[in-house]
Write a structure and sequence with these properties.
Distance between the termini of chain B: 67 Å
Shape of chain A: globular
Largest interface: A-B, 68 and 58 residues
Order of helices and strands of chain B: HEHEEHEEH
Bound molecules: iron/sulfur cluster
CATH architecture of the largest domain in chain A: Orthogonal Bundle
CATH architecture of one domain in chain B: 2-Layer Sandwich
Largest sheet of chain B: 3 strands, antiparallel
Strand content of chain B: 5-15%
CATH class of one domain in chain B: Alpha Beta
Oligomer: heterodimer
Helix content of chain A: 40-55%
CATH class of the largest domain in chain A: Mainly Alpha
CATH topology of the largest domain in chain A: Cytochrome-c3 Hydrogenase, chain B
Largest sheet of chain A: 5 strands, mixed
Structural class of chain B: alpha+beta
Structural class of chain A: alpha+beta
Number of domains of chain A: 3
Strand order of the largest sheet of chain A: 1-2-5-4-3
Shape of chain B: elongated
Number of helices of chain A: 21
Radius of gyration of chain A: 23 Å
Number of strands of chain B: 5
Helix content of chain B: 10-25%
Distance between the termini of chain A: 54 Å
CATH superfamily of the largest domain in chain A: Cytochrome-c3 Hydrogenase, chain B
Number of strands of chain A: 17
Number of helices of chain B: 4
Chain lengths: 562, 178
């Protein structure tokens, strides 16, 4: 462990309570501590770190490591954002009895993560308050955990419709209004059941993961190190660069690959340009959701030149395909740099005019202010990230807290608001656009010359673990990589920003009017497809049934498989 | 309120007409654009480099003895141009074409059958600067039964076997508990 880490406050707190832990901590990557603990101790340490030391719960990583050590592994990843530190608590669980005490009763942010660990690998979270099926399709056979190594990525399982998870019963006297399973707010699948008392939301239930694409399975069984970034960038139609960057950076950290500085700057510039067009898109969409379509039209008009710019600079308006392990594939030439500056100058001017108008537009405020309250306390407890957290006065931003690419040289200013409502989240994004424009300019000015790709001579070492968090427009995208022997990761785990933010929605829409639900859901910039990663289909609308579920399933499978 | 609306009106009127005439007039693409993949069977040496790196397995190479059959399922292509990057003969490249919509996926499928040969310049089969792209991955893309050919390429099953029965649970290998 490095001397700086030893000085850190959280470590003192941790070792006071658990003196043994000091001998178990390893630090292979700076800022990332790993401790292998007995399974009785892991939940205790997690709860203490989150509730007493202010750690943020990030995600769990369940690994089927039976081919190596004969057991299962479970890691709980925690972040101490102020101290720029990740802590991975790992436990090995016997193959015939993979149980661990659930931390969800005391750490609500772990709710989905523990359920997913059960669905995908079969790690039983004992004492979980809501152990319903989360990720797997309704008709998936019971007792099969597809991320275990005995199943191939294209294994087809029989349909067992009786396994559908029970729905949450609505509170006494309330009406159920379904939103979804398609088009809840955006053109994506997710199914909210709202429990209403008159116009007021008194509760909600969520079922999603209709579009899971099994990329983690592909990543650890089929693709090689340099194919994964391209699959990672397809996870999201907006933050493709974010996912591929987080993945390659995790591999580079694990394998100690020295990435040339110029490559890091190029990644940074593309990431910030991506944030700019994503925020412009979001502000437009927010206008659209509350039926103020002028905002949509104008913001998307202003955004389009950024997309064309990306096409000129990278060869594609989305999916830049720029990252490989060790660097980037193409340079930003001086002409391209001038092009970027020119486009940004225009965008800045036009966006400023819009912001000037929007900030005094009382009709917008009437729809956004004091709507969808997510208190600071709840935002922290549920592990919210990105503008959703920063709009609730939680000052976390991975660009500052866990720097990656060239952000440690750019002096990023966090944009934080304390309104805790949809308006505050809007303000955060509006100001972040200007900050991003400043960062791109600064990065272009500071970018050093030199190569853009590291030389990789031999096979990458196996069994190293590294994490990387990248701040996407919607929040922290977290990637975990454990390297493997076959020129591919042994385990690749990713957590998109919508995953924790979606869990905060129930809290956000509690007590709001039905008409405000879409903007509340929209206000954290949901991206359901990033959250969802195995191909499934479920059409369980209670009411109108033109097709039976089996017919529809068959139909759509035929369609997708061509 | 009124002031805000006035400002918004100015923005809207200031924008002018932004809708493009496309598709009634062509929409040119920038020089770096990565469009539909084109290939030249006369240049290809069937080294398999493109199939090795293609992330969505849009390129599948099958060893048929003296010749190799290369299948392009361009409906899967993600326009990354990795194939172009690694191809030693530049026998495959991205074009400007982006209008690939079709009611029939098979329009986007093509095959070429090429003689296998070594590179005339270096005498080797396939060389790349990046070590990761060189390594052979075990269990790489559904390797079928059979021996590798002299280039280390295994006979390959079609990318996804959709004809599989409803349930196909592989027996756990020895030493792997259920
Ligand atoms: S462009 Fe990419 S996806 Fe398309 S064929 Fe080439 S390597 Fe495959
Ligand atoms: S990389 Fe080029 S030469 Fe090799 S098989 Fe592909 S197209 Fe042919």
């Amino acid at each position: 462990m490095s001397p700086e880490t030893l000085q850190k406050k959280f470590l003192r707190g941790l070792t006071e309570q658990f003196p043994d832990i000091l001998g178990k901590l390893q630090e292979h990557v700076p800022g990332q501590l790993i401790a292998v603990l007995p399974r009785e101790e892991l939940p205790k340490v997690t709860k203490y770190a989150v509730n007493q030391l202010g750690a943020r719960f990030v995600i769990t990583v369940a690994t089927d490591q039976r081919d190596k050590t004969g057991d299962f592994g479970i890691s709980y990843i925690l972040a101490f954002d102020e101290e720029k530190q990740f802590l991975v608590l790992h436990s090995n669980l016997p193959a015939d009895d993979p149980r661990i005490e659930s931390v969800t009763p005391e750490v609500p942010a772990a709710n989905w993560a523990e359920r997913e660990a059960y669905d995908m690998v079969g790690i039983v979270p004992e004492g979980h308050p809501d152990p319903r099926r989360l990720v797997l399709p309704d008709d998936f056979p019971a007792g099969i955990h597809p991320l275990r190594k005995e199943y191939q990525y294209n294994t087809r399982f029989p349909s067992e419709p009786q396994n559908a998870p029970p729905r949450m019963p609505p509170p006494e006297g309330s009406t159920v209004v379904p939103i979804g399973p398609f088009y809840p707010t955006l053109e994506e699948p997710a199914y909210f059941r709202l429990f209403l008392d008159g116009e007021r939301v008194v509760g909600s239930d969520y079922r999603g993961f209709y579009n899971h694409r099994a990329v983690e399975k592909l990543g650890d069984s089929e693709l090689n190190y340099n194919q994964v970034p391209f699959v990672a960038q397809q996870i999201c139609g907006i933050c493709g660069q974010v996912h591929s960057c987080a993945y390659v950076e995790a591999v580079e950290r694990a394998c100690e690959i020295e990435v040339p500085m110029r490559a890091k700057y190029i990644r940074t510039i593309l990431l910030e340009l991506e944030r700019i067009h994503s925020h412009l898109l979001w502000v437009g969409l927010a206008g659209h959701i509350i039926a103020f379509d002028t905002v949509l039209m104008q913001l998307w008009r202003i955004r389009e030149p950024v997309m064309w710019l990306m096409e000129r600079v990278t060869g594609n308006r989305k999916h830049y395909s720029s990252n490989l392990v060790g660097g980037v594939r193409f340079d930003i030439t001086p002409e391209a740099a001038d092009d970027i500056r020119r486009v940004l100058a225009k965008v800045e001017e036009e966006f400023k005019a819009v912001v000037d108008a929007v900030l005094i537009d009382t009709s917008l405020m009437a729809r956004l202010k004091d709507v969808g309250i997510l208190t600071e306390e709840n935002a922290r407890a549920l592990g919210a990230v990105g503008p959703t957290a920063r709009g609730s006065n939680v000052a976390i931003d991975c660009r500052v807290d866990h720097p990656y690419a060239a952000y440690d040289q750019l002096d990023v200013q966090k944009q934080v608001q304390d309104g805790c409502d949809c308006w505050a989240r809007t303000l955060v994004r509006l100001y972040e656009v200007f900050e991003s424009i400043r960062l791109v300019r600064k990065a272009l000015d500071q970018m050093p010359g030199g190569p853009i790709m590291a030389k990789i001579d031999g096979p990458l070492p196996a069994d190293r673990i590294a994490l990387c968090s990248v701040e996407a427009a919607r929040g922290e995208s977290h990637h975990y990589v454990r390297t493997g022997e076959d020129n591919r990761p042994y385990r690749w785990r990713l957590r998109a920003p919508t995953y924790p933010n979606l869990q905060a929605v129930g809290c956000m829409i509690q007590g709001v009017n039905l008409a405000d639900v879409p903007i509340c859901i929209g206000s954290y910039d949901p991206c359901f497809s990033c959250t969802e990663r195995v191909e499934t289909l479920d059409v369980n609308t209670n009411e109108i049934r033109v097709y039976t579920r089996e017919e529809l399933q068959e139909l759509s499978r035929r369609k997708t498989l061509g | 309120m009124f002031k805000a609306k006035l400002k918004e009106a100015v923005i809207c009127f200031g924008a002018g007409r932004v809708t493009l005439k496309y598709p009634f007039e062509p929409s040119p693409v920038p020089p770096k654009f990565r469009g539909k993949i084109e290939f030249d069977a006369r240049k290809c040496i069937a080294c398999g480099g493109c199939a090795n790196v293609c992330p969505p397995r849009c390129i599948v190479i099958e060893d048929m003895g003296e010749v190799a059959k290369i299948t392009f399922n361009l409906d899967r292509c993600i326009q990354c141009a990795r194939c172009y990057e690694v191809c030693p003969e530049k026998a495959i490249w991205p074009t400007d074409e982006f209008e690939t919509a079709t009611p029939d996926k098979s329009d986007l499928k093509s095959e070429m059958i090429v003689w296998m040969s070594t590179c005339q310049r270096c005498g080797r089969c396939f060389e790349t600067d990046n070590a990761i792209d060189k390594f052979e991955s075990k269990r790489w893309r559904g390797r079928g039964p059979g021996e590798a050919n002299k280039h280390g390429i295994f006979p390959i099953k079609p990318p996804i076997d959709f004809s599989m029965p409803g349930s196909l649970v592989r027996e756990p290998e020895e030493g792997q508990g259920q």
